[in-house]
Design a protein that fits this description.
single chain, 5-stranded antiparallel beta sheet, globular, 104 residues, mainly beta, 9 strands, 4-stranded antiparallel beta sheet, 0% helix
Length: 104
């Protein structure tokens, strides 16, 4: 069981939107390793985590369901500095949003 001793909130940060074309992978998206992030997509996507020079994401990477707020605490994973997103839909562009969370 996890016990939380802080509350995270969006703070003054704005979401960053990346559009990923049909059946395509995004470019590398930088994330700060010392923060927690929220990822949201309007269609299912596959997410790949890693360092600079990360290869293209594909259907074998972590599946993130559509319209789900997924929180990643990257503060404990110092080697993850970038993500890439794969859109498996062959006909529709996906909107992928990310924003860091601030601590209260």
């Amino acid at each position: 069981m996890a016990i939380h001793d802080v509350i995270f909130h969006p703070g003054a940060f704005r979401a960053t939107r990346t559009q990923v074309g049909a059946a395509a992978s995004s470019a590398e998206l930088a994330v700060n390793t010392a923060e927690s992030w929220v990822f949201i997509a309007d269609l299912p996507v596959h997410v790949r985590f890693g360092a600079t020079g990360l290869g293209a994401a594909d259907a074998t990477d972590l599946l993130m369901p559509a319209n789900t707020h997924v929180v990643w605490n990257l503060g404990i994973l110092q080697d993850i500095t970038h993500v890439r997103v794969f859109n498996p839909d062959v006909a529709t562009t996906v909107n992928f949003f990310r924003f860091p969370l601030a601590r209260s």
